[in-house]
Write a structure and sequence with these properties.
Anth_synth_I-like, 12 helices, about 35% helix, magnesium ion binding, binds the ligand C=C(O[C@H]1C=CC=C(C(=O)O)[C@@H]1O)C(=O)O
């Protein structure tokens, strides 16, 4: 089987390498291969240059290994969205394509104006990569795309050899947690208190404040294993990982930012939360309470109003139900309102992302004031947490999730992030408990390391 793929790829490349276009992109159909196994197989050759994405409906899974092209922006304004769009168009136009074509994966920082801390040093305000190898699983079909810029046939042949010969490293040692620290807990509680004062004084209407949990492990964290745990434990989430040098941003988010397919697009309002119950009865009671609770309905309404307005500006046929329903994840339930619309001619996925980020579910309301308040009073640098992460294909279709329930992994360290929406009657201790529930997906996946 190995030589079959190798031969197919090499045969196809032999005919097209040396074309005058800058990048050659070919795609072949493959037999079944597990995307997580492919991610793991890339460890030897591509550690620090891998990504993983699987959407919440399991419609598409992407694994990227290596870097054929990188788009990067350190731009601190909204221009970063347009810079990425322009560069992506140039790459696609300059490529020789056989098959489905290249795809890029990446994301944006939450707030490039926030003073950055050293942990996020490898994550600029925008970065996307076109991988050398892209494995696509769409429904039950598997495709391998190879994007070549400089490599020779021999190099590609060796890489494929390595990828399809790597064994499953199930005998590897599991790292266990040796230290757990709540970062700036008291400062965060004070910030929540301060934010409620600002809101009561009409300086702002809603702000989302996040905090951090720091974990240190006995040895290097096995990223493939964490992805595996996230898949097992959070099957209804977007599962993502983006490696950049020695660090990896990873998570299991329930929140869609936007999906564009041709003229159609979708987004979702997700805000307002309560834990899951221990019994079916308790769970239903908590859900009913959430649907009727004024504070949570207010938090949710800010998101619906803002998204409605943003979509109406660039879309037609915007469909938004009048009442939220419940979205139940493993540890938490949220108020949820799905949105569908038809995009106006010429509106790209990048402009949708630019318009929507950050929704009041991650920033607050009004948007600019909320982001500025976060910049001033939140005791951490969010980096890529709570920001758009996702993919765009050669036709401009794609999907972005909001990167929450996430962590930044270093070698044997993990920084976990969780936040919650603060409105006038928020109680700092209840909000603190809510962040504990929101840490759970990443915490359990990382603790899975020691099971
Ligand atoms: C900011 C987070 O969640 C947001 C998404 C859903 C519900 C939220 C809430 O109820 O506060 C938050 O707005 C997080 O998980 O870190």
């Amino acid at each position: 089987m190995v030589t079959l793929y190798q031969n197919k790829v090499i045969d196809q490349l032999r005919h097209v390498l040396g074309k005058k276009e800058h990048m050659v992109s070919i795609t072949i159909r493959m037999e079944q291969i597990d995307p997580l196994a492919f991610f793991s197989a890339g460890e030897t050759l591509f550690y620090g240059q891998r990504f993983y994405w699987s959407d919440c409906l399991h419609e598409r899974t992407f694994v990227g290994l290596g870097r054929a092209q990188v788009i990067k922006s350190n731009e601190k304004t909204k221009k970063r969205f347009r810079d990425v769009e322009r560069e992506w168009k140039q790459i696609v136009e300059g490529a020789f394509i056989e098959g489905q074509g290249p795809l890029m994966f990446g994301g944006f920082a939450f707030d490039p104006l926030k003073q950055s801390d050293e942990h996020w040093i490898e994550f600029p305000s925008a970065q996307f990569v076109v991988p050398t190898f892209l494995l696509t699983k769409q429904r039950d079909e598997i495709w391998l795309t190879v994007n070549v810029v400089h490599e020779s046939l021999n190099q590609i042949e060796e890489m494929i050899d390595s990828l399809f010969h790597t064994r499953d490293e199930s005998d590897s040692h599991r790292a266990h947690i040796v230290k757990k620290e709540e970062v700036a807990r008291d400062q965060w509680l004070r910030s929540v208190h301060y934010a409620t004062d600002l809101i009561r004084n009409d300086a702002i209407e809603k702000v989302v404040l996040a905090r951090k949990l720091f974990l240190s492990f006995s040895e290097r964290i096995d990223r493939s294993h964490v992805l595996h745990e996230l898949h097992e434990q959070q099957p209804m989430s977007y599962i993502f990982a983006f490696e950049n040098g020695s660090t990896c941003f990873i998570g299991a988010s329930p929140e869609q930012l936007v999906r564009k397919n041709g003229h159609m697009c979708e987004t979702a309002c997700l805000a307002g939360s309560i834990r899951r119950g221990h019994t079916v009865k308790e769970d239903e009671e908590l859900g009913r309470w959430l649907l009727q609770d004024d504070k949570n309905r207010r938090e949710h309404a800010f998101v619906v109003d803002m998204i409605k307005q943003a979509m109406n500006e660039v879309c037609t046929e915007v469909v938004i139900p009048n009442e939220p329903t419940l979205l139940k994840m493993r540890h938490i339930q949220h108020l949820y309102t799905p949105v569908q619309a038809k995009v106006k001619e010429g509106v790209s996925i990048f402009s949708l992302v630019e318009r929507l980020h950050p929704t009041p579910a991650l920033g607050g309301f009004p948007k600019e004031k909320a982001v500025q308040t976060i910049r001033e009073i939140e005791p951490l640098d969010r980096g890529w947490y709570a920001a758009p992460i996702g993919w765009v294909d050669a036709n401009g279709n794609g999907e972005f999730a909001v990167a929450i329930r996430s962590a930044l992994l270093e070698d044997n360290k993990a920084h976990l992030f969780a936040g919650c929406g603060i409105v006038a009657h928020s109680d700092p201790h209840n909000e603190y408990e809510e962040t504990n529930v929101k840490f759970k997906p990443m915490l359990l996946a990382l603790e899975g390391e020691q099971r």
